[in-house]
Amino acid sequence: MIRHLQGYTGDVVLVSHDRDEVCRMCRQVCVLTRGRSEPQRPVRELMASPDTVGAARLSGCKNVSAARRIDDRTVFCPGWGLTLETAAPVPDTLTAAGIRAHHIVPGTAECNSAVCRVAQVRRNAFSVLVTLLPESGDGETLTMELSPGEWVAQGGAETLTVHVLPERVIPLTGGGV
What we know:
This protein has helices spanning 2-5, 19-25, 43-48, 53-58, 148-152; strands at residues 28-29, 32-33, 36-37, 41-42, 63-66, 68-71, 74-77, 82-85, 96-99, 105-106, 113-123, 128-134, 142-146, 159-163, 169-172.
């Protein structure tokens, strides 16, 4: 399709659910959530820092949970049973929090740690997706993405303590959780 549009100077509307296609073919993106249009913004900006549930899902964020604001740097996600510190300001209109799968890492930290049961392990060509069930949650799972070597280092554990850095917790607004 790109070849057919080369040299065309007008605007083109591309409708896609494919993140890679959007990144490859578009400079600007407008996310539609439940029939409502979000503001248009540069694709790179949306992928780097989504601020709505729809934008987070489009950008590939595998972990999105309903959340409530505790204060300007703390959220609570009842589905995961986690109170998470954020580096980004938490808006008053917060509805959810997002964590990218590759930002969840094994080990403990001063904050944002959780003990989880390993519910499922899926091996891909270049990574391992581990579905985690936080012990303190209401049954919502987290997906962690590791390299095969990082997963082997966990020794097939049935329970893992994991954490996420505050700068990796994404405060989100909008519906569709």
